[in-house]
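Sample 3 of the quickstart, ligand guanosine-5'-monophosphate:
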Amino acid sequence: MEETLFDRIIAGEIPADIVFENDHALAFRDINPQAPVHVLVVPRTRMRSIAEAPEQDPRELGCFVQAIAETAKALGLEEGGYRVVFNTGKDALQTVPYIHAHILGGRRLSWPPG
Ligand code: 5GP
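Result:
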């Protein structure tokens, strides 16, 4: 699999505004925020998208999901709520082929997304 931007952020080769990290995942602010709080969470175990989840270790996937929730909590989003988005493939406009969860919050979000 080719190296992506997020591999380089995880490796510390490209700076990022990190808001949460543990042994399993890293969370950093999106460079082009779409909400007052817009953070990306990536697992340290690489996969291209959530479409590859069935081939992954379920314990690692569980730790990734827990890291998403812990990030949202650390950002103070628990009370007001937040949205978690996995853009997957071309119709969803996934631009970085390394799985990432968008956490969006800090305002009332509209539904459905465009
Ligand atoms: P996707 O469209 O693949 O779901 O989301 C990729 C996200 O990465 C976009 O929201 C985009 O703004 C963000 N992004 C692109 N380049 C950078 C970067 O260099 N640093 C950070 N922090 N975010 C980036």
